[in-house]
Amino acid sequence: ACDCLMENVTTYKLRHAPCVQWAASGNVIRKSAFYASDAQWHSGWTHENLFEECVVEASTGNGAYGYGMWASPPEDTAHGPNGPRNVVYNCDIRSPKAGLWMGGMNENWLILYNRFVAGAGPGIFAKTASFDHIIRGNVFCLADETQPAVLLLSPDCIGVELIGNRVLGGNGKMWGGLGRPLVERDNRLEPAGEAPRPRPAVPSIFEWQRRQR
C-alpha cells in the first residue's frame, strides 16, 4: 500500500498493530489506539511512513513480540530489513520490553516527541547499520536499571542525533553500546518514575502539511 490514510481506529488483541510491510510507503497512520499488540515495520523495505498521535500498549500475548514497536532485521531471510525515513511522531508507547527495536539498515528515521514507557530493555534499541536517526523531544520512562535510554549496539550505528529528550530511570545514561551519537545535547536525566507525554508545538505533521497545501 502506498499513500494511504488510516485514522480513528481502535484495535484489541491483534498480533501486530499497526503493521506495514512489503514496500509500503507514504502511508499515514494516526489518531488511533492499539491495545495488546505491537506496532511493526514488519518486512520488505517499508519506507517514508508516518505514525502519529497513536497509542500502542504492547503485550507478549496474541503472538506479539513484547516490544512497543519493532522493525525486522536484515538477517531475517523471511522478512528482511526496512527502509529509510519512517517517522514516529507524538505517540504514546507502552511495552513490557524495549520501546522501539530497530533490527538494522534503518536510515534517517525521525523519532520525535513521543513517550516510551519500557518495562525491560532500553527505550530505543538499534543495531547493524541503523544510522542517521534524529531522536528528539521524547520522554523515556525506563524500569530496567541496567539500560540507557538509547542503545546503539553496534559500532556502525553512526550519525544519530539525541536532542532534548527527558529520561526517567534506567541506568542514568542517555546512550550506551558500541555506537556513538553524532550529536548529544539538552537531554535531561532524572530519577525513575513516569512523566506526561511531550506536547509538541505542532501536534500533527499530517494536519500541518494539509494546511500548507
Architecture overview:
The chain is 4% helix and 37% strand. The protein is built from one helix and 23 strands. An eight-stranded parallel beta sheet has the order 1-4-7-10-13-16-19-22, with no helix packed on it. Strands 2-5-8-11-14-17-20-23 form an eight-stranded parallel beta sheet, with no helix packed on it.
Distance between the termini: 23 Å
Cα gyration radius (Å): 16 Å
Q: Could you tell me the number of beta strands?
A: 23
Largest sheet, in brief, is: 8 strands, parallel
Numbering strands along the chain, what is their spatial order in the largest sheet?
Answer: 1-4-7-10-13-16-19-22
Q: What pattern of helices and strands is seen along the backbone?
A: EEEEEEEEEEEEEEEEEEEEEEEH
Residues in helices, as a percent range: under 10%
Gross morphology? globular
Sheet/helix structural class: mainly beta
Q: Estimate what percentage of residues fall within beta strands.
A: 35-45%
The overall average pLDDT, rounded, is: 97
Q: Can you tell me the residue ranges where pLDDT is under 50 for at least 5 consecutive residues?
A: none
Please report the number of helical segments: 1
